[in-house]
Amino acid sequence: MPARKKAKPINKEIAMPKEATKIQEGRIDQFFSGPGARADQWRDLQDVAQAWAAGTAKRSDVEAALVDMDATEEYHAYPGAHLINALDDTIAVDDARATAALVTRISNALITRSFRKNGSDWEARDDNDTAVRDVLPPVLGRGDSQRPYFETLIVTGMPADRWAAASSEWRRLRRPLDAFVYEPVIVGSVEDAFCATMLNGDIAAIVINEGFGFRSRHNAPVLRTLSASMEQQYNANSDVSALQLAQLLKHVRPELDIYIVSNRRVEAMAGNPKADVARRIFYSVEELLELHLAILEGVQDRYETPFFDNLKKYAQRPIGTFHALPIARGKSVFKSDWIRDMGEFYGINLFLAESSATTGGLDSMLEPTGNIKKAQEKAARALGADRVFFVTNGTSTSNKMAVQALLAPGDIAIVDRNCHKSHHYGMVLSGAQPLYVEAFPLTAYSMYGAVPLRTIKQALLNLRAEGRLDRVKMIDLTNCTFDGHIYNTRRVMEECLAIKPDIIFLWDEAWFGFARFSPFLRPRTGMGAANAIEAWMKDPASIAAYEKQKAELGDKPSDETLLNTRLIPDPRKIRLRVYQTNSTHKSMSAIRQGSMLAVKDVDFHTVEAQFKEAVFTHASTSPNQQLIASLDVSRRQMELEGYGLVSNAIEIALAIRKAVAEHPLISKYFSINSAEKMVPAEYRKSGFTDHLSPNMNWAQAIESLRDDEFCLDPTRLTLVCGTAGFDGTQLKGILASRYNIQLNKTSRNSVLLQSNINNTRSDVAHLIRVLVEISTEIERRLAQGGDNARKEFEARVKSLMTDVPDLPNFSHFHDTFRKDAGKRTNEGDIRGGFFSAYNAEGCEYIPLNHPDIDKRIKNGPDLVSANFVIPYPPGFPIMVPGQVITQETIDFMRKLDVKEIHGYDANEGLKLIRPDALAKMSGKPQAEKGGRKAA
Ligand SMILES: Cc1ncc(COP(=O)(O)O)c(C=O)c1O
After folding, report:
1. Among 389, 390, 391, 395, which is best to mutate for testing ligand 1, by the most ligand atoms less than 8 A from CB?
2. Which pTM was predicted?
3. Contacts 24+ apart (CB under 8 A), 219-223
4. pLDDT category, 611, cuts 50, 70, 90?
5. Which of 345, 444, 654, 728 has the fewest CB atoms within 10 Å around its CB?
6. 531 in ligand 1 pocket by Cβ < 6 Å?
């Protein structure tokens, strides 16, 4: 949008509510705000315009409100210069009613997104006077065949007064045959291009014409703290600036297609390796239509869903099946008097698209060669991986597949003890020996954080000291954790590669798949960091950095020195082997159990056969077609609108945090843990405390995301409810049964809320209303119950918040399962422990509260767990097979007041491997402490 007639210099980092701009300027939520804040601005403008029409506000109020929004509106095609100028005109002629009508119409079109399909929304006049028309939201799930809409960012050096004409020229290129419709958004500088790319989730393609400037004419102080060095290198009017900008924008949003239009030496530019980020380079005198077609083709490439497209075609064919799966085609369902309701409930397409066939246009999950293979390749592109496996039994299976394929019996894997049970079971399957490392505890909330890098490095150094580094093959960590702790994936990998250059990383990112589509979070994903390391390895400066550090450290640096140094690996020696698992169903639009296993492994060819075996072991021979299709479609969605959806999820999480913190009644009883509460200060060297703290801006959030050892995923909200007298399970029950609110996990004194791409601001409003209602009820109960009620409440809060049990660390495997273990590390043969439980005679049960438990802990012989014991919450195994049980674990278990403990039957007691069975296995009698043999 060219400069408006009345534009004034304003601070326009990002759209946000006016009052917030005024009161808390420079706050971090400026760059974390998205469509919600923009909609609020339009609603605010609507209120002021209507007040002006009613005579209760002044024209200058409307002008001021409009100027506040002016700059960021330039980054969106709708309402665009035409409608904004029309607004200026109605204001200029003092027509308050027409102003209010137009603002209302624009605001409604934005909220309902109707402008994407209604041509009349773009007109300055609406003969039906929609100022009074109700806002009707688009019908969910309606199958209308409108063409998908997107916006194309055009970066140009042409003078702003020619932008309107240029926009019209772009629109004239549209043809009825086009599969999509797009609107151009024109900007003239690096800063504006960056802001538009950050703020406008509708942008799906970018065209960079040479000749643009660097600085925006608007004020962008926080951005400038980061862009100053880039400005120095900025090379006006050259190919360099176009390539630099293309790289910057690709870094922010890798899913976008970038086209460069050059006036001069296009051949030289095309040959520059930096031009890899561009989908195509055009010579400027060429046909604009070619560029238009290339843009549509680029979007079509992302839109195409090879498996789903084929499945739809398959469903339309008149196929007779003489195969299994009678439900396919639906005849036995729709003809039945008894189960027709199922058909009506799910609809005919579900049945038409069912098949057990792998031919006739479908493909085989076990040996994909056709459209599943293509769909997986597209998913790999979307996730920044070399290859992706679709998995239809959840990330539980993806993890087991990766562990089985990459580890063999006797291999050692450094594993977070609190990781999901699929990893522990994967170790049992593979026969690998887990070397458990402990996460930092958050005892106050009965939960664990993540594993400090120092602990991981120490484990590697211990193995090295004992000459057993060759046996450790994998580091297996959860990123982010259930409660939102995110590793500094790049730093962890670099420092570990400095000790063992070929170690494999398995990042369980079950919860974190969406992070790929946020520029803030992407660098902290396994694949994001792997790509950054790969780029770093190619830079000659990296070898110099490594050599410099090597010289500084000397020949034999002590372990302490190595632990205290940010280690740089030798880029020439690294074998980059990174695996990442995502529950696509947890954070994207896949049907339940849809998961992806992403691979970036230079040595994949050496394990490819093993991966095939892992697929054959775990994948059903009857995978669900709908599930595979939903994985394909999730990828399409994230490549085309994932950025906007994730921004929205983050914005919603921040809105919930803000609303809870600022509400006088809710905040009396409830709070949401900030990064400061969830990540101890020693792991937050940047000093970042909370996205909402005053004086915090997004540049500091970026610094924290870049440097801090751990960050908190803002979309994971630990709502502390012990202060309201509820344990987590109680509050979860109340929210589900009374208010239809489903939430994630619980702890002793908290519940975990999570925002995702599906949430709307109505969900936030509902949650806040409910918390107000619950808080009001507590107030009433306390007011009416007198002293007794208050004392009871305080005692309950104290018990939940203060009398929390210590979290038990992993003790050690019994010697029977550590025959080939070293002295300094705790790995053990979990598989041996697991299968000892199959020998019923070799096992015994002792009730948890039986005095024998305490006696044996004191005097021996050891209590050795025969199985996994996993209480929910907290959900990590407090005992694994072969583990020696300690007092700490028993104390924790006795204090647990949860009903669901997998692997433990309260009537029978703890299942233990008998001392005589251990003696038989190890060939050693089991001694009581002090040397006496067990009876
Ligand atoms: C960290 C982690 N990994 C893996 C899984 C298993 O994923 P799925 O439910 O897709 O099998 C979970 C499930 O909650 C999890 O929390």
Report:
1. 395
2. 0.92
3. 219/9, 219/10, 219/11, 219/12, 220/11, 220/12, 220/13, 220/191, 220/195, 221/11, 221/13, 221/26, 222/13, 222/26, 222/30, 222/31, 222/697, 222/698, 222/699, 223/13, 223/191, 223/194, 223/195
4. very high
5. 345
6. no
